[in-house]
């Protein structure tokens, strides 16, 4: 932790303002702490015994710099902000607590891995006590071509920018916005990127941006899905091999599926695998169970209705 209470003082003292000859105490568990500093770790306070559940220790430079930047950006907007303000009712201490006009906003700058259970517990704790919460991610959570569970749980939605994630680059001291997140069959994750000097610039962009609502794929993009799938069949991964075996066991060619199995629009970032695979399975099951009572056109109509439902997520 970077803040501790000096003996006989109520105000928190930053580790960078440490003075020798004084005793310092954890504001959470009230135990005495020691000052540490080194080439790999930012100056911080640490417990003599690892029995405190309120504060983390040995923060990276990026995490400390990020929290200070968030506080600075809030103060530029004339908002009172505190770093590591301990909340005794819920026994949690947010990275930054910002006082708004009619509420309080918790900002968590997540640089390290976080389990889904911990994420849910912390988010629930804040919300149940009336705090708004917003997660900003560090570099280790940066989006690539695939969306991981660690990234997916932090996704937000706004009507002007769609599904999005916000990152803080402590080294360049800027905010990075990944927005209009969506999936395109066989091509994986698609998104746009914006870089902003501070929180004010980011908020202005979100306010005035007009999201692209045309999610339909062109004919060339649909044809590209087929080409991509044929190419993937030559480089089998375990999941694709299971799909091919599933079709073969039912005396069907995997590449012989009806075109209605191709998604005609981009999809919200909620699927673990491309929806073309479960569509093919649905077709095979329907043909097997209802061979005499369902036609190909009825199957296609069913998927057209699914396309309309999917668009509601955007």
From TrEMBL:
It comes from the Bacteria. InterPro entries: CoiA-like_N, CoiA_nuc, Competence-induced_CoiA. Residues 59-178 form the Competence protein CoiA nuclease-like domain. Residues 18-54 form the Competence protein CoiA-like N-terminal domain. This is Competence protein transcription factor. It comes from Dellaglioa algida DSM 15638.
